């Protein structure tokens, strides 16, 4: 038997594609971590079944690969935002139940029916349209969203109770799921949680025997009262905080890196980047890395020269060779400058990669410096990264 282990792995490159080892910006997505996080959330969900929320292209990490990995690991219920996402997911999760959170309206029904997608009906208007659309189609499943205090989507509790008691509704109408969404699940001390829980119990009790679902990632951490029949984790699957600190129990799923294309010596007293807002207090070494705000590396992460620096004192960091290196001056469209003066000479070279988010630079820490949340950083990552997926074991 021959041993091929020393042979370089041949990557098949698409036309115009740069190898992962040479890409300007690159993104490693650990599908094993996503599966492991789903299993962690499943364990925390107790007796409830655990769905997977893969809207917004799997929180920016790729609905096709993420959906396929979770389906392979046993996830049987998925939530997407819009029917197009459901149609994409259907190819990778043939027997799953796929719920579409924004509901159904004229012009979308074909995509629902053709891909066996379950609309989460969010208003009496949508209900009327659904009844008319399925009249000729026959029995078709739907879910009902009930608003218990978010004022976003859903029937009011009164509307839900009226619907449950309405004898004129089509006889075949039987929702497969009743759901609601918490406004303050990230704050266990908020009285909103208990109030929404009580309203949800009242609404759900009018639909006896129908499955119930209240909690996204944060709600799962609120404990078993909040789990009902089905939980709906999203951000937790991707390793992000839903309640402060909860990501410590999860594995980071995405590592974004940018290549150092130049290292330059700069004299004390000179300035860095647009607006000359960063004046160097010492002779410095600067690493220029090939990603910027066009890669979702938000300009608000800049070390200086953006209004946020008055409110959130520290700017963003990168991580390289075990050192946290501050962003110097303003982030530009395609480039970011890091102050690497404190990294020993020889520890970094042109061609090395600076980690933007990942195991050494938690998503939520980067998000805080940008004045935002991990959800927004992930979903903003953009298409310019060269992507590599690590398959689950
Ligand atoms: C986005 C969303 C989720 C998932 O939320 P996370 O905080 O990412 O876990 C669950 N339910 C609804 C209705 C949502 O809109």
Automatic annotation (TrEMBL):
The lineage of its organism: Bacteria, Pseudomonadati, Pseudomonadota, Alphaproteobacteria, Hyphomicrobiales. Pathway: Amino-acid biosynthesis; D-alanine biosynthesis; D-alanine from L-alanine: step 1/1. This is Alanine racemase. It catalyses: L-alanine = D-alanine. Keywords: Isomerase, Pyridoxal phosphate. The modification N6-(pyridoxal phosphate)lysine is found at residue 55. One of its GO terms (molecular function) is alanine racemase activity. InterPro entries: Ala_racemase (IPR000821), Ala_racemase/Decarboxylase_C (IPR009006), Ala_racemase_C (IPR011079), Ala_racemase_N (IPR001608), Ala_racemase_pyridoxalP-BS (IPR020622), PLP-binding_barrel (IPR029066). It comes from Martelella mangrovi. Residues 253-390 form the Alanine racemase C-terminal domain. CDD domains: PLPDE_III_AR (cd00430). The active site is at residues 55, 274. Its EC number is 5.1.1.1. SMART domains: Ala_racemase_C. Pfam families: Ala_racemase_C, Ala_racemase_N.
